[in-house]
Design a protein that fits this description.
The chain is 0% helix and 35% strand. With 101 residues, the protein is an all-beta fold. The protein has one domain: Beta Barrel (Thrombin, subunit H). The chain has a seven-stranded antiparallel beta sheet, with no helix packed on it. β5 (44-53) and β6 (58-63) form a beta hairpin.
Length: 101
């Protein structure tokens, strides 16, 4: 299945823009921080910067920059299908083979 045929998961509608050019979206879902968000044309809007508010109805703060498309209040925001991929864990608890000396 190609990425153009996959269904986008709606996150919410942009309520307002802060003085620091962050988009605020009330949502019913709690996605991961750093997830990429797109508009209905699949153009990237920004990445999730912060999640705040209640756990049942959180607010999502989206960090934008010049490389992302402009968005305005009232636009619908979707989670990008690329966010499904998980990073390989190379940290403290990753499985390593022990060497015997």
């Amino acid at each position: 299945m190609s990425s153009n045929k996959t269904k986008l998961n709606e996150l919410g509608i942009i309520s307002h823009i802060t003085s620091t050019n962050k988009l605020i979206v009330p949502s019913n879902k709690t996605p991961r921080i750093g997830s990429l968000l797109v508009n209905s044309k699949r153009d990237p809007i920004g990445r999730i910067n912060d999640i705040f508010g209640s756990t049942k109805k959180p607010y999502i703060s989206i960090k934008t920059s010049n490389k992302f498309k402009k968005a305005s209040p009232g636009d619908v925001v979707y989670l990008s299908p690329q966010n499904k991929k998980r990073r390989k864990r190379n940290g403290r608890y990753s499985k390593k083979k022990k060497t015997i000396r």
